[in-house]
């Protein structure tokens, strides 16, 4: 959890919801079956400008810290438990200075039943964008030349927490949801106490759950090669 999600026409809505200043020109196409290592649009505040510039950037799902020797480490870091961030070297520095918001239309979760695992699609009932709390990192490829524009890899992870009902009846974990009103605080690069900020995000997430809806979908979503609007239709 969260291992698959949907991004459909969300980027254009973000300008109003999150007041994005700049949209990257290499944003990925909409997808109904986003899986780890895929490129996804994320929102971050660049501290290199004053005031910080809010950007919508294309990033790879699966966090690759700057000290990593190989980007393959990101395959196992597509999620990060919010309660462990401050104790894990892989996420500690990103929590302090490199927080992101990952916009989505909704996400998939699998419930364990007597008949096997059953996928559900979970999304805001009013059709508004779903916002996940995330962390991002920049990784420099030592094998590429300094003037190679592809030498830098931007990657991210989605934070999770214990699920609350009704989502708890589907799975014991859920993404750490961010309300649009909390976005500025989460993205603020000058926060003094990130522990308090993280606690506030965890405490606020259940209120977002109250505005979500879910329904069972077909098992075709289990194959990443399937990517079409039909995947989110109720069965």
TrEMBL record:
Q: Name one Pfam family in it.
A: SRAP
Q: Which InterPro entries match?
A: SRAP, SRAP-like
Q: Which family is this protein grouped under?
A: Belongs to the SOS response-associated peptidase family.
Which UniProt keywords are listed? Answer: Covalent protein-DNA linkage, DNA damage, DNA-binding, Hydrolase, Lyase, Protease
Q: Which sequence ranges form a coiled-coil region, renumbered to this chain?
A: none
What high-level taxonomic lineage is stated for the organism?
Bacteria, Bacillati, Actinomycetota, Actinomycetes, Micrococcales
The superkingdom listed in its UniProt entry is Bacteria
Is DNA damage given among the entry's keywords?
yes
Checking PANTHER family in the record gives: ABASIC SITE PROCESSING PROTEIN HMCES, DC12-RELATED
Q: What is this protein called?
A: Abasic site processing protein
EC number, UniProt record: 3.4.-.-
Q: What class of enzyme is it?
A: hydrolase
